[in-house]
Amino acid sequence: MKQVLSDIWAYVLSHPKKIFLLALAGVLVLWVIFGNYGVVARFRMEAENRMLRELQEQEELKIIENTRKIRSADNPETIEKIAREKYNFSKDDETLFIIEDKKK
Questions:
Q1: Cα separation, 4 vs 17, whole angstroms
Q2: Distance CA 32, CA 36 (A)
Q3: Which residue has the higher pLDDT, 59 or 70?
Q4: Alpha carbon 69 to its chain's center
Q5: pLDDT for residue 90
Q6: Could you tell me the pLDDT band of residue 100, with boundaries at 50, 70 and 90?
Q7: What values do phi and psi take at 88, rounded to 5?
Q8: Which one of 8, 75, 84, 93 has the largest count of C-beta atoms within 10 Å of its C-beta?
Q9: Is 88 left (phi over 0), alpha (psi -120 to 50) or beta?
Q10: Residue 91, SS3?
């Protein structure tokens, strides 16, 4: 074991430029892979970008649905429907029965 370490140390001392360049290349490779703008960070940012785009599409669909609801709010039948469903309004000659779920 001692002989192997001695041989390695002798090689390092006999080729210092080569060892320095190898160490520099190793550090550069690690920086490219794990640095702030490296490959790992790139994959993480791509995944976040996909998630945000999906969220944007969902929100745009909600906006379209809300716009459709707002445009239909001018219609008297729609106003009556919302008043009946959401606020339990009824006409004067109607009896209203409210059935609640017991699952809550």
A1: 21
A2: 9
A3: 59
A4: 29
A5: 75
A6: confident
A7: 55, 35
A8: 84
A9: left
A10: coil
